[in-house]
Design brief:
692 residues; alpha/beta; Immunoglobulin-like; TIM Barrel; 3 domains; five-stranded antiparallel beta sheet; 19% helix; elongated; transit peptide; Glycogen debranching protein; ISOA1-3-like_C; Ig_E-set
């Protein structure tokens, strides 16, 4: 036992005994009579356990790993007489910096949001005895899934949220009613693993105020929930479990955005937090001369396919799946996970295969961001092993390009509407996570209000963020009182939402798009812990008509199997069907216009279930400024067309409740106003006037 200079050694430390004991698992775990510690550290000399004061992290005592405690590359011992709740801990090698345990289940020291953290590790995470109250995971069929991407702090941090604990897991829990009323059934949370929000080198250009790393894509501890997101900072794990339990009770799945491509340790300049001090060559991609490869634009790149790192990532995913009942994971910059030790893409990345085939993760969702900062684009080619899905950025760009009138965009929009068979033909459309917006880029309202990003407040000279946004300001840059411009913007937002929710594949909405959330033109709000990055809930009341429109579109999607197919629809008419699964039309039936100048796409989506029930939906969208008259194909025999949605109609009549759609005044013709979309649904012919 070694004392420390900062504080007298406590009496209980005198009674501790360290004995070698083989590791069954890494990390710190209570055992009868003490605590077992095991850490992978093949290059560490004179490795010591450092016991720390629970209140301020001051060193209390150091316990050297005894002779015989090295088992291969793992140092393991049991410390008898140690109460796991009496002290926090870290490691120190050869008198160096204090190191965090990579497998620590709890990492105190960063409870106060915005203050520089003083991290250390706790043996026991709060919530170990958590009562799930019999609530089980929803296990929603993928064809029924609707994802809603949100940032835990930003979702309720604004005073307008009206919650008791804004910016926390508890605050999000208070908004579950909004999610269920809207009709989404899966939330995808931006990073919730412990991160350091003060780790940002940029300052506001006017005030000089330090900016935050608000989004949290700089993980410090992979097994610990973010303490600064807890209303009770002493119990983040328990509070996060309460959130997951109540989301599950409401029928909502939970997907975590996870960052395994880089860590918060940066490059050779540091900081050194854990991995670098324990085994940098195993955890990071290094050049032959020992420099850190920077394929992520963050300073380091995780050596994801090294056996030690593969095991670490799998341990982490299993832990969140088992301990927190998480339903799935979205992997940031996932091509990094397909790279070998030299940084080149591997033909068969072992990590991706192991994740896909892991028995614990077999029923969890795996979603890849199929591009990375080094230029890899694996969209449609990501090694899926029958399990991985992908964020489909080509869907995003196709919808945007068509709706702003870009030449040559009609054909690609059609391909994206039916689940991108050019990308996923053999895998099916349900691996395509369709989205028009996400945390990266403009919000939907800003996409219709800005031609250029307004990122000056990020302190990077306005050079950051996505360069090509395929946006259109509808005639005026930014906010305006012009009623015509505002009507057009509202119509464009509805067009995008409507197309998203009638497309084959899995739709994903960005939080707040359902009521016109704005970031005031900032398309990279990663550093904006303020009104720019926070959801303004006053807009939910101000734009209640848009919330209603979105909710009705979501219920319409759930009511129609023609929109939720597990296979790509084709143009072949099966025996007994009135129409093929998909057919394309134009101003007249069966005459689509795929020319470069086309601004009209019209599709008839038809489905016949095994019991003979038919479902028929007609979608038409006009990207040109002038109104156009089209002739829809006839509704199937015994039915007639009813109008579900018309984005040019006044609020309240822009979309109708399922089953209450009025019949089409003139079934033989349909007028699409400029920049508008219409959706029709076939209902059995009903002579009664109530349906008109």
């Amino acid at each position: 036992m070694t004392t420390t200079a900062s504080r007298p050694r406590p009496a209980w430390a005198e009674r501790l005994t360290a004995l070698p004991r083989a590791p069954r698992r890494l990390g710190a775990h209570p055992v009868p009579g003490g605590v077992h510690f095991a850490v992978h550290a093949p290059h560490a000399r004179d490795l010591r356990l450092v016991l720390l004061d629970r209140d301020d992290g001051a060193p209390l005592a150091e316990v050297p790993f005894p002779a015989g405690s090295r088992f291969g590359d793992v140092h393991a011992m049991v410390v008898l007489g140690l109460d796991p709740d009496r002290a926090h801990y870290g490691y120190r090698a050869a008198g160096g910096a204090l190191l965090l345990d990579p497998h620590a289940r709890a990492v105190p020291g960063g409870e106060r949001w915005g203050e520089r953290p003083r991290y250390r590790c706790a043996v026991r995470a709060d919530g170990a005895d958590f009562d799930w109250q019999g609530v089980v995971r929803p296990r929603i069929p993928t064809e029924d899934l609707v994802i809603y991407e949100l940032h835990v702090r930003g979702f309720t941090r604004s005073p307008s949220s009206g919650v008791a604990s804004p910016g926390t897991f508890a605050g999000l829990r208070a908004k579950i009613d909004h999610l269920t009323a809207l009709g989404v059934n899966c939330v995808e949370l931006l990073p919730v693993f412990e991160f350091d929000e003060t780790d940002n080198t940029y300052s506001h250009p006017d005030t000089g105020e330090p900016l935050r790393n608000f989004w949290g894509y700089n993980t410090v501890a992979f097994f610990a929930p973010k303490a600064g997101y807890a209303a009770d900072p002493s119990a983040p794990a328990r509070e996060f479990k309460e959130l997951v339990r109540e989301l599950h009770r409401a029928g909502i799945e939970v997907v975590l955005d996870v960052v395994f491509n880089h860590t918060a340790e940066g490059d050779h300049r540091g900081p050194t937090l854990s991995f670098r001090g324990l085994d940098a060559p195993a955890y990071y991609l290094l050049t032959p001369d020992g420099a850190y490869r920077n394929l992520t634009a963050t300073g380091n790149t995780v050596n994801a396919n090294h056996p030690v790192t593969r095991a670490f990532i799998l341990d982490c995913l299993r832990y969140w799946a088992e301990e927190f009942h998480i339903d799935g994971f979205r992997f940031d910059m996932a091509p990094i996970l397909a790279r070998g030790p030299d940084g080149a893409l591997l033909e068969r990345p072992p990590l991706l295969e192991e994740i896909a085939q892991d028995p614990v993760l077999a029923d969890r969702r795996l979603i890849a961001e199929a591009t990375d900062a080094a230029g890899a684009d694996l969209l449609g080619r990501f090694p899926s092993y029958g399990h991985w899905a992908e964020w489909n950025w080509r869907y995003r760009d196709a919808v945007r390009r068509f709706l702003i009138g870009r030449p040559g965009s009609a054909g690609e929009l059609a391909t994206r509407l039916v689940g991108s068979p050019d990308l996923y033909g053999s895998r099916g459309p349900l691996v395509s996570v369709n989205h028009v917006t996400c945390h990266d880029g403009f919000t939907l309202a800003d996409w219709a209000a800005y031609d250029r990003p307004r990122n000056r407040d990020n302190g990077e000279g306005g050079t950051d963020g996505i360069a090509e946004n395929h946006s259109w300001n509808c005639g005026v840059e930014g906010p305006t009182d012009d009623p015509g411009v505002n009507r057009l913007r509202a119509r464009q937002v509805r067009n995008a939402l409507l197309l998203l929710l009638v497309s084959t594949g899995v739709p994903m909405l960005l939080a707040g798009d359902e009521f016109g959330r704005t970031q005031h033109g900032n398309n990279n709000a990663y550093s904006q812990d303020n009104a720019v990055g926070w959801v303004d809930w006053d807009l939910a009341e101000r734009n209640a008509d848009l919330v209603r429109f979105t909710a009705r579109c979501l219920r319409f999607r759930q009511a129609h199997p023609a929109l939720r197919r597990p296979r790509h629809p084709d143009g072949i008419t099966p025996a007994g069907w009135a129409y093929p699964p998909v057919s394309w039309h134009g101003r007249r039936p069966w005459e689509p216009d795929w020319s470069d100048g086309s601004g009209l796409v019209a599709a008839l989506l038809h489905h016949r279930s095994p019991d003979g029930a038919e479902d028929t939906v007609f979608v038409a969208v006009n990207a040109r400024p002038d109104a156009t008259r089209i002739e829809p194909p006839p509704a199937p025999a015994g039915s007639r067309w009813h109008r579900f949605a018309d984005t040019a109609a006044e609020p309240g009549r822009d979309a109708f409740p399922v089953g209450e759609e009025p019949s089409l005044d003139s079934p033989a013709s349909l007028v699409l106003d400029g920049h508008s979309a219409v959706v029709l649904v076939a209902h059995p012919a009903d002579p009664s006037p109530e349906r008109s």
